[in-house]
Amino acid sequence: MLKILFFGDVAGNPGRQAVKKALPELIQSEEPDLILANVDNLAHGKGITVKTLEELIRAGVMGFTTGNHGFSKKELADEVFAKYKDIIVRPANIPETYPGSSAITLETKKGKVLVGHFLGQVFMEKQFPDPISSVFDVFEKWLKENKTEDIVASIVDLHAEVTSEKVAFGYFASGKVSAVVGTHTHIPTADAKVLPEGTAYITDIGMCGAAGSVLGMKKEVSLERFINKSWTPYEVPENPSKAELSYVIITVDELTGKSTGIKPVHQLVDL
Ligand SMILES: [Fe+2]
């Protein structure tokens, strides 16, 4: 049985610290074959840098998905997507002019795992500057191009705002990939399941980020924006004493490519 551990959106330094702190023990206890993380908010809550990605690589994370903020720090992102093109995947349904790989294949002891990544469309137009193709229009073509004979398991991260789009896509992709996980909203959902055709599914894994925050950002800033309708830039809490750590552990029968289980975990980690 092939075991995949997938961390939900790692938000800023508290999220990175939480992953680094928890991972050695998780590697011992769970013995995952593949460790993945969504890094849309990795560098100070928005985007990715080589330095922050390397922190997680050193900690043992083997592959990465991104999201609507993946290109926010443009020059830094270009560097990340060039240097780590084999282990970081960008959304496949954004314009081709964006750098990076729209699919990655990672080697494990049990065989090759295909990792895909798409953005949702609904309520995403203000969060991404360019047109996003519908995942429902492009998924099958993507699958045909990338799911080769030697792939033993496949997992797709749909980074989307609304639950309905993610749930619908889970059914759409059921039986075609081993797992579909949702990211972006930072709140873990209580609907992890294996669909009848053998696809593990969860609407949102949740985040790895500061406890006592609003989605990994200072709660004071969020409250200010809601109460006074003022535009105040989001900030990542500096030294929180605890972090939320959200991940799923997915088991896949590498002989059939079908999932046999998905275990969601949401816990607090002392920093
Ligand atoms: Fe996001």
TrEMBL record:
<dbReference type="Pfam" id="PF13277">
    <property type="entry name" value="YmdB"/>
</dbReference>
<dbReference type="GO" id="GO:0004113">
    <property type="term" value="F:2',3'-cyclic-nucleotide 3'-phosphodiesterase activity"/>
</dbReference>
<dbReference type="InterPro" id="IPR029052">
    <property type="entry name" value="Metallo-depent_PP-like"/>
</dbReference>
<feature type="active site" description="Proton donor">
    <location>
        <position position="69"/>
    </location>
</feature>
<protein>
    <recommendedName>
        <fullName>Metallophosphoesterase</fullName>
    </recommendedName>
</protein>
<dbReference type="InterPro" id="IPR005235">
    <property type="entry name" value="YmdB-like"/>
</dbReference>
